[in-house]
Amino acid sequence: MQIKTITCHNVYNYGASLQAYALQHYLESLGHNVEIIDFQPWFHQDRYNLMHVDKNRKLYKLSKIIPLSKYVIFPYINRGMRKTWGRKKSFDRFTKEYMHLTQRYESSDELKQNPPVADIYVAGSDQIWNTDCPNGHTPGYYLDFGTAKKISYAASFAVSKVADEWKPFVKQQLSHFDHISVREKTGLKILEDLGIKGGELVVDPVFLLTESEWSKLAGGAKNYGLEDGKYILIYDFLNDDRIAAFAHKLSKELGLPTIGLNDYNVLPYVDRNIKDAGPLEFLSLIKHAAVVVSSSFHATVFSLIFQKSFYVFPLKNTDNSSRMIDLLQPLNISSRFMPTDVLPDIEYGDISKKLEVNTNSSKEILIDFINK
Fold first, then answer.
1. Minimal CA–CA distance to 32: which of 63, 52, 5, 10?
2. Cα angle vertex 201, ends 175, 188, to 5°?
3. Do residues 275 and 84 make contact, with C-beta atoms less than 8 angstroms apart?
């Protein structure tokens, strides 16, 4: 079958890129012809764009008065992007080599006017229905185009509830789906609250591939000269003082250096910053770490896949805890969320069995959705 997926696939975020690749790769392994819809709305075009500036800033208004000034002002305002510019190159290489994309669409209207040809559209995964972000307000992410069969796989609302003002919009958009599956238990509760029945709970797409498949992919990563199992990997988006304090405690107790995997900025509290890692390096750095400390859902997921010891914190000032809790609670490792003390290594026997059962069930649900 011709299958087109839609997700946040090219936003310079490790989890976003890898979950998009995973769903594409798994569906291809079933014999389908798969492409990711290259949907790049305005709010996904600002990352690593030196010429993007918030229209509310005073300097933006100055550039409207003196048009040529923007070529000096905008790059100056965005100069901080250059600190991790190597990430952009690594991500772009991954996208070019591993993702099979349609033509570019920059708005929901463009998708409606010229929808990609397919037998089935699949929405998901990642935070495509998060109404705290522009994603959840965008019809394109709800497959509001074309006449093909419409299903979702592991779509995430990312929050524990949808704000009242967005409930009518979300309910209307989801009403034309043939089948819906979500990534979190809270997603099922949201569907129930909206009066939408028949939703299924499935695992994130990255679980659809085996550890050996991810290890093979990680084999193509850059070599940073780090000794296997002899460092603590820190993936902290926002230079979180809670993570900094815990990383210091962990490093002191284990006698291991801290390695910062940088996103927006370098981390001042780690022993070494890595500023140019792409998705392959993300996989490799987790695979070879002794411990992973992050504020990232997918860093946590890949820690599970590679059977690493890990700790995870919620992002500061956001309501994204539900997806972490929903992941860890059924595995009886909720103590890894917002830790205060260093814990013993994780025993993966029962955890791996539960993940295998959930993954096999999710594969059956996806295949059933496609074939119904």
1. 5
2. 55
3. yes
Long-range contacts (CB closer than 8 Å, 24 or more residues apart) made by 325-332: 326/183, 326/184, 326/185, 326/186, 327/184, 327/297, 327/300, 327/301, 328/300, 330/354, 330/358, 331/304, 331/355
Question: Is domain 214-339 given the CATH code 3.40.50 in the classification?
Answer: yes
Quick one: CA torsion of 265, 268, 270, 273, rounded to 10 degrees? 40
Each residue's pLDDT tens digit, 77-122: 667 777 787 899 999 999 999 999 999 999 999 999 999 999 999 9
| Rg from Cα positions in the chain | 21
Look up the CATH number of domain 2-46+84-208+358-371: 3.40.50.2000
- Hey, which residues does 39 pair with through a beta bridge? 105
> Is there a contact between 127 and 133 (Cβ–Cβ < 8 Å)?
yes
CATH 3.40.50.2000 in the chain is located at: 2-46+84-208+358-371
Structural tokens at position 57 = 């800033």
0.85 exceeded by the pTM? yes
